[in-house]
Protein 1
Amino acid sequence: MLKQIEGSRAVAETVALCRPEVVCAYPITPQTHIVEALGEMVKSGKLTGCEFINVESEFAAMSVSIGASATGARAYTATASQGLLFMSEAVYNASGLGLPIVMTVANRAIGAPINIWNDYSDAMSQRDSGWMQLFAETNQEALDLHIQAFRLAEELSLPVMVCMDGFVLTHAHEQVDLPSQQQVDAYLPPYEPRQLLDPREPVSIGAMVGPEAFMEVRYLAHARHMQALERIPQLAAEFKQVFGRDTGGLIHTYRTEDAETIVVSMGSVLGTIKDTVDEMRDDGHRIGVLGITSFRPFPLHLVRAALHKARRVVVLEKSLAVGIGGILSTDVRMAMSGLHMPGYTVVAGLGGRAITRKSLHQLFRKAEQGLLEPLTFLDLDWNVVNKQLARERSVRRSGPVAENILRDIGTVASKIA
Amino acid sequence: MPFQPVKFYQTGTFTVGNRLLKPEDRSVQSHRDRSNAINSGHRACQGCGEALGARYALDAAMEATKSQLIAANATGCLEVFTTPYPETSWQLPWMHSLFGNAAAVATGIAAALKVKGRNEIRVIAQGGDGGTTDIGLGCLSGMFERNDDVLYICYDNEAYMNTGVQRSSATPPAARTATTMPVGPNPGNPFGQGKFVPAIAMAHEIPYVATATVADLHDLEAKVKRAMEFRGARYIHIFVPCPLGWGTASHDTIRIARLAHETGLFPIFEAEHGLQVSALPIRKQLPVEEYLKPQKRFAHLFGAKPELEVIARIQARADRNIRKYGLVKQQETP
């Protein structure tokens, strides 16, 4: 059913169609609308057979989900940013125990400085947690990915994070095709746990494991991710049969067939990049786009196959590994191992800094001309940076960095290009 | 046949021995068909109070629930000494997740059972004092405040024993731990304001709060059974001496626990919906020295020059407990 609806609401209504049995809620911007909507649906009786629990922290949200999942319930929660970090210990625990929890991450920057706007610092911080991480490009894809995520998680007994851009997607009102209950039921069977806390058949879960078995347990988590590389495209194909839409999968290529320059990215910024690429194509540039949907597991072979004919690769990512540069680009480099072509890392959009077509045009042209630095911070204001550096050189007690910079910029503290 | 004197009381106590009780009044531990929820063969130290407390509590809970019980466990001694596979001691469905989240995991288990309509199955969460009064307090308070249908049991041995006897917020004043060494002008743990989690539990006005020690099996079992008569959040705080961490003889665990009660240092009581409803009376109050002296963690108080002022402050705490919880019955004037 086509509906003009906020991204968060669309996700909540879709999650409800997946018949979750335990939903934990803890507020954090920009995720909160999702759990608010689910809470309303449970309270009004629209969503039955579901315990909605207002917990006291994100750490508790994931911990309650762990207990619920181990007792055979389909568990869901949502978070973002600091919330994801606060629950991090339990995030690792959930995957280590092999519990198929599904969680939405409304991607948001991590402080300090505190910032509520979109980038991928939060999800990237958990990239090695053992969770599968799927990134949505549009609101339609966000809700479709949730349906696939429950199926994927439960088949493999591993948790899945569905990442969607905070505000850009969560708060955007746009038309989506909301599936019917019959469609979701046809695609998503009831949860059949591999391990279950039940007095009829007592088991111990979470025992101390020493060097004699730890490696094997960890390897099997990796093996399941490798299995997911096969299952994710199959599940997307099955999804298309039921819902008639081509969403999900591991990667998406756009106009890459004869491309000399390929831009690699994730999430909603792919739309802006595709618009820019269309305009450049009109001007005769041979440029294309590779969108990564499945960041974990990372489809090394598909990425390599998509890139190997290009002459240069630009990875544009909303994340920064301080001290080295890119995170996504490091993985892309690994996929390109042995291919001789320049690879550029572009860190962009941190803390919600707008990524404009104008800036992308300049950026991609510079890449084509071989003028791009290996690591670029898109639209970095060098005047502001240099002023602070000069201040630090001139006086020992130069004060807090962020506050100095805000003062230098002036009253429009939230200025975003 | 040699002469066998009839023992009316357990040695050194006023507790009536099991054999003189009617079968229905005997302890769960004395039943041949007790569940052995924590089976023998685990790796606890000799004389471990926590192993004893957990066994008493869980066997009583298993009987009260007809073995329809699931347990969540915080990281700590109890988790470590019971689980190295394939030697798990747990005869009931049991889960360990993290150090600070046992209460929340139990909430999740209870929520799943509710949604599945399996209301006959009850949920216990358990942890040591570190996992309860420090790192797990947030999740514990959340579980209390929501009144989730969970019985949380804290086995309090007054320090982080699993990591090598470091101070917790349940460590008593003046006690030696690895992080409060008996050196300098004020040796041992400083006198703080204290953090008595049973009182914090009462402040949440949850249906049932109780304290107990491993010295009084009947009292402990009765409280676990009573807790199982309620739905909603319940809390039992069990005092469990640790021979290794306290520097006590392993055969003295029960005696030390009894002394904690009889000096007034550990008050034993019950509360319902935030109000105290009972106290286990002290028949004859003993001076705190009786409790402190057998423990090496307090040895620095009894050197060549005893720390009389410190001992007096500890005595004052015991006296205050006795007044606060009504632990000594008013003497009838002749």
Protein 2
Amino acid sequence: MKLFSKYNRINISATILIFLVGSMAFYFVLQYVLIRQLDDTLWSEKQEVVDYVNSHHQLPEIQNTKNQWIDVVKINALLPNAFVRTIPLKIIDEQEYIRQLIFSVQANNQYYQYTVNKSEAETEDLLQLIILVTMAMIGLMLLFNYLINRKLVTNTWKPFYTTIDRIKDYAAHLQPLALSKEPIDEINLLNESINSMTERISKDYLALRSFTENASHEMQTPLAIIRSKVESLLQDAEGNKKTIQQLLAIEDASVRLSKLHQSLLLLTKLENRQFVLNEPVLLDAILKNKITERQELIDSKLIICNTNIESVIISFHQHLAEILVSNLLNNAIRYTPSGGNIQIELSKSNLIISNTAIGGALNTTQIFQRFYKEHSDNTSTGLGLAIVYEVCLAAGFVIEYKYQQQQHIFTINLSK
Amino acid sequence: MKLLIIEDEVLLNQTMVDFLTAAGYLCESVSTYIAALEKIELYDYDCIILDIMLPGGSGLDLLKILKKDRKTDGIIIISAKGALEDKIAGIEMGADDYLAKPFHLSELSVRIAAIIRRKSFHGQALIQIGNIQIDTQGKSVKINELLLELTQKEYQLLVFLTVNKNRIVSKNAIAQHLWGDDMDLADNYDFIYSHIKNLRKKIMALGGEDCIKSIYGEGYKLQAN
């Protein structure tokens, strides 16, 4: 729900409630006041009659009007006290209410009961009119309130929505937002806070980026020294099998270390979204090329490799596409038993690589985790599938692993 | 063949000098930007091995100066900045090759040899080793004037061993040279063995000298006088 709708809903319902309660109270107060006024005239009529009787010792002449009339009847005793009441009166087909004051007087030793009647119609008409005017005013007020609020809220919140839109595209480039100054304090405060926050994020991001780059540089140099020294020593060690083997073990370790380092660096860069994924990439060409490079390996393991490759161009990153394909192929070849099958399918929507499994299904929750290995195997870094997963994540592809009929099936959904 | 090695890491610099000197090159080395600038302005080299991050300046600036002065020196960048963008930038600025640290010295040696062969056309494209003659332009090999039929991998392997003659090269270095970085190296060790075996068989079949020695199955060496 939009803020404006929410605000309106509360505002309007509160206004209506207050006006309803208010109108009701107003109605009753007004009715009370008008009835009292009516009663006052009735009582003064009584006073006039009583005064007249007291001074003239006879009943006054009765003058009836349309709205006020007096009935006089003889009674045997005086009423204990005078009282007023409202009674309904049916006139033709209209129901009307009449206010009556009933009292008794004594004149010439005869008791009379006086009933002064006054129609409430006039009072009711007045009441109705007042209520009508009030209702109309309430209606108008609500309407104007709504219109003014709508205009005001829409205009006032425009900068807020601008800010929200800017934040939405923020993740794409991580540049400080530099939102403009606004006349409204709250929005200004929001913009300033977001500005300082995005500036800090950008600084942290740059710091992290330069840290990974520096770390990479600083680590690769000593590794380069180790490797070159080992290679030099190797030349002097000729004839000494044990030394050569040990030197080559050092070399192996240094090669593994630098590969590991490169893989972790790649993962960090992927997580930092440091790649721009908008190059047109011929995925079929890369796939065919990578398969050809590995053909020798595939043949040597007597693996039957079936391919069904459509021509596919996607907006992606050349290097990342190569890494993605290489890692999946390496994995498939490595874990297919001798004489097994590899099935590679590429269509506009999917890249599916499946291979004959040696064991059972892989652990679906863990295969894409870093350093997860099904078997202890020190020739693998345990990062291949983690990299595949991160590349897919960065590109917006969905990768799925399934185990069906002794086949490991990796499916990448290429539609973003 | 004169080389200039520009590398600020003294240990690495020294190892490269020793290795390349042993490989028959005349090496000069510097470790700062200023010293490098002086050398490249005064002398010509067949190939310059250029580190990017130098005290006092960037190797890429040296590259710009070399290109501006229309120097024909071959240039190979060696940098710890393995990022692909840096590789592309370096090549676009006119470097002949790019090698990310850490690298095998034997790989560096092959790349230098290839650059020098490309730069100088006067008969340099031919490598003679014993009675084996490799034509690096036509990518063909002859033994006693008879054409040696080799697969692409066998050819690459022969050139690699030839350039690094009389030195032990490890299986790792060969695998990286033949298959690059993105393949599982361990899987390829068996191929190296079979390629070497086939290469030796083919060379001997044409009466060539059996010059490739296995070093306890861990590395190989091409022996030449």
